[in-house]
Amino acid sequence: MVPPVFTSSPTEYRPDENSEEECAPITPTTKGSSFLFDSSILADEIVGHVPNGLRVRPLHIDDYDKGFLHVLSQLTSVGEIDRSSWEWRFRSMQRTIPSTYFVCVVEELDSTRVVGAATLVLEWKFIHSAGSRGRVEDVVVDESMRGKKLGVLLNDVLVRLAKQMGVYKVSLECNDKLIPFYEQFGYKKDAGNNFLVQRFDGHSKM
Amino acid sequence: MVPPVFTSSPTEYRPDENSEEECAPITPTTKGSSFLFDSSILADEIVGHVPNGLRVRPLHIDDYDKGFLHVLSQLTSVGEIDRSSWEWRFRSMQRTIPSTYFVCVVEELDSTRVVGAATLVLEWKFIHSAGSRGRVEDVVVDESMRGKKLGVLLNDVLVRLAKQMGVYKVSLECNDKLIPFYEQFGYKKDAGNNFLVQRFDGHSKM
């Protein structure tokens, strides 16, 4: 995946690597870790039953080589992400305080490949006593693993995780045919509330 | 506003104040600033025309005493936020790298009161070449200032800001009667896409 592609904006800032190592605040639980967030958060009571041969864990820095982006590409446009961009995005997500990005993956133990992924993103607020709301994003299961209810597994994990994080609500966007699927996790179509969007990339639907 | 109310979660972490002062990475443009983000981002071409006697600026740490929370309370439940919680939330938003929270306010110059507010939140992604999507949140104008098109002003600012930040899309949720209002800024109801939600606080609608 070349050439390097960085997101750029006037406020995006890459600290000097040395000073980052010395000074960047990393949550104590992830300091020095290669997991995106403390893997102990995905305790048994959050993860529930996982089929034999699989495990649910946080995204890992090495998942660049383990098919995570290939799985995401079955959902929408991934574009070009070289290793440097990958590491920068991963570390910037990992460094958030309070923690904001909970990318969970399903790993096939034999192959160590990522075969499913889903993200809980928290938005920290002033409202609701400086609370947070959660959003479920980028839920996808590898085509080779469909029909095994891994989507159910991932969604169950994310709802339990959102509750544990203390969000006052969790939401997602889904197309018409997926409404019954998501209702099983407790979501309801918000009567009278509408999702409005405008796109600037000219082609994508996600 | 007492007693102190903190959001708490297993991963929320308050760094030691001294080490935070020395080490927390603050975007160069906001380092030492009391604005939430670099105020030069709200350049004339982003802000557009502002009625006499008002200005649009980033949220400021002193807005705790200038009516910002009172304005928000006209939108939804604010709850109890003491000064310590306020400062913690403000600084955690300010510290995000890449910048994530763009809370813009309308200030009445004579009174120095906040009379309107709106937030652009960025979610940083792996998809779309490690791009970002934007969301417009918590748009509200003080009841004393309604009818002056300050909601239009704030929404225009946020759409231009989102474009400048390079998001691949920007979205919002709104109730049925506000769809025509938001269409003027370029938003469209996403045909076949639905907003699903579940709430854990037992009462709120936002």
Quaternary structure? homodimer
Q: Give the SSE string of chain A.
A: HHEHHEEHEHEHEE
Q: How much strand content do the residues of chain A show?
A: 15-25%
Shape of chain A: globular
Q: Within the largest sheet of chain A, what's the order of strands?
A: 1-2-3-4-5
Largest interface: A-B, 96 and 96 residues
Runs of chain A in which pLDDT lies below 50 for 5 or more consecutive residues are: 1-29
As a whole number of angstroms, the C-alpha radius of gyration of chain A is: 17 Å
What level of helicity do the residues of chain A show? 25-40%
Layout of secondary structure:
The structure is a homodimer of 206-residue chains.
Chain A: H1 17-23, H2 44-47, E1 54-58, H3 68-72, H4 83-94, E2 101-108, E3 113-124, H5 127-130, E4 132-141, H6 150-165, E5 169-175, H7 179-183, E6 188-189, E7 193-199
Parallel strand pairs in A: 4-5
Antiparallel strand pairs in A: 1-2, 2-3, 3-4
What would you note in describing this structure?
2 copies of one chain form a homodimer. Chain A has 7 helices and 7 strands. Chain A is an alpha+beta fold. Chain A has a 5-stranded mixed beta sheet with strand order 1-2-3-4-5. Residues 1-29 of chain A have low confidence and may be disordered. Chains A and B meet through helix 1, helix 3, helix 4, strand 3 and helix 5 of A and helix 1, helix 3, helix 4, strand 3 and helix 5 of B.
